[in-house]
Amino acid sequence: MFRLVLARCLAPAIALIAAASLLPSALQAQALNYPALQVPSVATRDYTGAVVGSRGTMMMFQWREEITREMHVGFDLGLYDPNQTGARTAVFGAANLGKDLMRATNEQPLDLLLTAGVGVSIASGRTGFRVPLGVSMGHTFELEDGMAVTPFVHPRASIDLCSSCSSRGRSQTDVSLNFDVGASFDFNRRLSARVAALFSGADQFGAGDAISVGFTWTPDGLRR
After folding, report:
1. Is the pTM of this model over 0.90?
2. Which end of the chain, N or C, is less packed with Cβ atoms under 10 Å?
3. pLDDT category of residue 33 using cuts at 50, 70 and 90
4. In this model, does residue 40 exceed pLDDT 90?
5. Which whole number is the average pLDDT over 166-195?
6. Which residues contact 143 (CB under 8 A, 6 or more apart)?
7. Is the CB of residue 189 less than 8 Å from the CB of residue 167?
8. Which residues contact 50 (CB under 8 A, 6 or more apart)?
9. 8-state DSSP, 145
10. How far is it, in rounded angstroms, from Cα 135 to Cα 112?
11. Domain 2-217 of CATH type 3.40.50.300
12. What are the residues whose beta carbons fall under 8 Å from the beta carbon of 99, sequence distance 6 or more?
């Protein structure tokens, strides 16, 4: 029974990975265009290392830290290595907040987390800025032996600014809509695997559909 439940939970993640491998080469995962890997709950303290792929590869590190029982602060830092000939490696970073909006109850099944942040990327003489605002929503299904799975979606809108991105070297500003579809698989109270696909409408950062796979570590004694 447990194997059947686990197989059904893993099926969406396997499908996401397979779909990402079929993305056309025209799609780009520019810096600042990556899945947030944000589950719909406040983190006490956790560390995530992840790989993001599309037309290029990102290596990303995330740190989230509780500041109140209903809010955490988070930081992202990483490198993006594009596949395009002549393109340079980009460095990017971001700071964000998560605030509990609603917890699942017997009457309604969803956890909701308000998210907001600011990010910057620098590469090849171009600087990109992004200010996103969104809501992560999902539900945690408890399994056997302390395991759990949390499927989630994370829609968000953002103001995007890219300096020297136009053909005349001028800055461009736009508003984009992006959303993640993903899941977190808790192996135990300390270690989780997270996978998410990003579907992006960000013109300033390319057609940045992407997929990310990472592992999250929660120090013992800190997780609620």
Report:
1. no
2. N
3. confident
4. yes
5. 87
6. 2, 5, 6, 9, 149
7. no
8. 37, 59, 60, 61, 62, 194, 212, 213, 214, 215
9. G
10. 7
11. no
12. 42, 70, 71, 113, 114, 115
